[in-house]
Specification:
The complex is a heterodimer of chains A (111) and B (113).
Chain A lengths: L2 E3 L3 E5 L4 E8 L6 E6 L6 E6 L3 E5 L2 E6 L4 E6 L8 E8 L7 E3 L3 E6 L1
Parallel strand pairs in A: 2-11
Antiparallel strand pairs in A: 1-3, 3-8, 4-5, 4-9, 6-7, 7-8, 9-10, 9-11
Chain B lengths: L3 E4 L2 E4 L5 E7 L5 E7 L6 E8 L2 E4 L6 E3 L9 E3 L8 E8 L8 E2 L3 E5 L1
Parallel strand pairs in B: 2-11
Antiparallel strand pairs in B: 1-3, 3-8, 4-5, 4-9, 5-6, 7-8, 9-10, 9-11
Classes of the chains: A mainly beta (111), B mainly beta (113).
């Protein structure tokens, strides 16, 4: 079966750094996506990793270790608007762009 | 503006009625997807289509049907056979061939009573 685990909830302080972890066990792997989703809205793409290592994009960075089935999303200089759910999704091997999503991590940023 | 539209934002129906959710895109993407999102669960794939006039069942297709008569449109019908239809429904699109991220529409929240 396919399994993706993320913490359910996290809290952090404005201006701080937070790391959201994602572990996966899937039959095949062809990349890992992170999406941000504000309550009641569409998920929006944040990052994509297919090779091991760190990808940095402004305040957001994402790390992947394929041998450990592990990824994290790092958010720096937290702002109140970063309060949202963060979804980890694995693209499976195969002919079409099938994604398996974790349940998401709800992040609350407080002053 | 390029994008994905889903309408309406909120939809209410009585149990036993079929209801069709619309999804329209002008991103010129070949692939389109329907997901269902429930509290505490990840997005689950209902149906997907990689090309016009072709579509495939996802992980939870029972009680749903789709059509893909035009590249721009991928409507989802929630039938009376779907046991728990109340959910947030998201439509997504992507390119095909390489690894493309999926772009999501704003979603339709369906409530069936």
């Amino acid at each position: 079966g396919q399994n993706i685990d993320q913490p359910t909830e996290m809290t952090a302080t404005e201006g701080a750094i937070v790391q959201i972890n994602c572990t996966y066990q899937t039959s095949g792997f062809n990349g890992l996506f992170w999406y941000q989703q504000h309550a009641g809205e569409a998920p929006t793409f944040l990052s994509y990793n297919v090779l091991d290592g760190l990808e940095e994009k402004g305040r957001f960075s994402s790390f992947l270790s394929r041998s450990k089935g592990y990824s994290y999303l790092l958010l720096k200089e937290l702002q109140m608007k970063d309060s949202a759910s963060y979804l980890c999704a694995v693209k499976l091997s195969g002919g079409y762009n099938k994604l398996i999503f974790g349940a998401g991590t709800r992040l609350a940023v407080h002053p | 503006d390029g994008g994905i539209t889903q309408s309406p934002k909120y939809l209410f129906r009585k149990e036993g009625q079929n209801v069709t959710l619309s999804c329209e895109q002008n991103l010129n993407h070949d692939a389109m997807y329907w997901y269902r999102q429930d509290p505490g669960q990840g997005l689950r794939l209902i149906y997907y289509s990689q090309i016009v006039n072709d579509f495939q069942k996802g992980d939870i297709a029972e009680g749903y049907s789709v059509s893909r008569e035009k590249k721009e449109s991928f409507p989802l019908t929630v039938t009376s056979a779907q046991k728990n239809p109340t959910a947030f429904y998201l439509c997504a699109t992507s390119g095909t061939g390489a690894i493309y991220e999926q772009y999501f529409g704003p979603g339709t929240r369906l409530t069936v009573t």
